[in-house]
Write a structure and sequence with these properties.
With 390 residues, the protein is an alpha+beta fold. The protein is built from eleven helices and 17 strands. Strands 1-10-9-4-3-2-5 form a seven-stranded antiparallel β-sheet, with no helix packed on it. Strands 11-17-16-15-14-13-12 form a seven-stranded antiparallel β-sheet. A three-stranded antiparallel β-sheet has the order 6-7-8, with no helix packed on it. It starts with 12 loop residues before the first helix and ends with a helix.
Amino acid sequence: MKIEIPKNNILKKNQLELCLLDIKKAKGIPNEYYTEDACLKVEQEKIFNNGWFAIGFINDLDQPGSVIPVTYFNNPMLIVRSKEDNKVRVFQNVCRHRGMKLIDEPTVLKGAIRCRYHSWCYKQTGENCATPHIGGPGINFHESIDKNELNLFEVRTHIWRGVVFVNPDGNAPKFEDMHASIIKRWEIFDQELYTDQTESSFKLELNSNWKLAVENYLEAYHLPWVHPGLNSYSKLEDHENIVNYGNYSGQISYKYNPIFSTGKKFKDFKNLGSEWNSKGEYIVLFPNLIMGVQRDHTFNQIIEPVSSEKIIEHTQIYYSDPKMLDQKYQSTRLENAHLWKTVFEEDIFVVEGMHKGRYAKHFDGGFFSPLMDLPTHVFHDWYARKILQY
């Protein structure tokens, strides 16, 4: 079914076109695209289903047989690390027989994926391997049924920097082609990543639209007032915009200086140039992945849109060497995770506050500072072009 922009007196094409103007004249995304469920359905089709977006972390599938069910836009999917070949795949989380949801909670499978309704079974690689009584009691085959046509629907998948991405409609350009710019920019960090899911992962639930979490993260403008602790050593004037229209944007800090109360330091990634001694880069890879790289650790944050006014932020922190997961670094890992969680928690009131403000009748999308809001304008421009199919 083709999804169109709702045709009413509020959601007009020309309002989104204002996002495409020069930043000095541009307006932001109209209110309704933050508050209306109808607009979330448009986003599902024009932004998420036909592109690449993040749905999970491969480190959460820590052993063969691990499965994690996820649902985006009411689309149930199942991330599987197969025992057969240790490969991570994503399937539609439904039985091919009558559409029963297969798995409700994360688990580790001993064997096949089994439907609890009529006990149809699938290998962890997706092939149908059992159709009990399909030809009558005690008869597990039928001449009109080809089990090769009853495998689980596989979702197009790509893994980069520990993140599982999907392209549900299967028609997007290759991930490596679509995101060649950021892959090239961060190729020096294309190294093994190590994490402890218990100590280096956390999630936050916010009453807000997903786009507002993206927008807040893109700029450093708010640091002096929202993050006084962070701003005490990485000040507003120590930042620079990262701008890549059509793909990603964010910021650079030139005063990254990892100091922990434990007195310990994490091992740096290999072969970094001297510019990384005090530099950190923080971007949003559109639509829903927040990423950060520093010399001694990196992180990913997936923004999960639950509804037009609720999101879950899933964060995972990574280190350069497996020794950083040793017991002697535990206190330092916990302190590092606490520091990042505190930063993201400090943002909650502004992200939720902006969402509340989007119900104001006369707010017109807002304005952009030509200098301070440039990364935000990159996102609004990208979003409007996706919705309008420009």
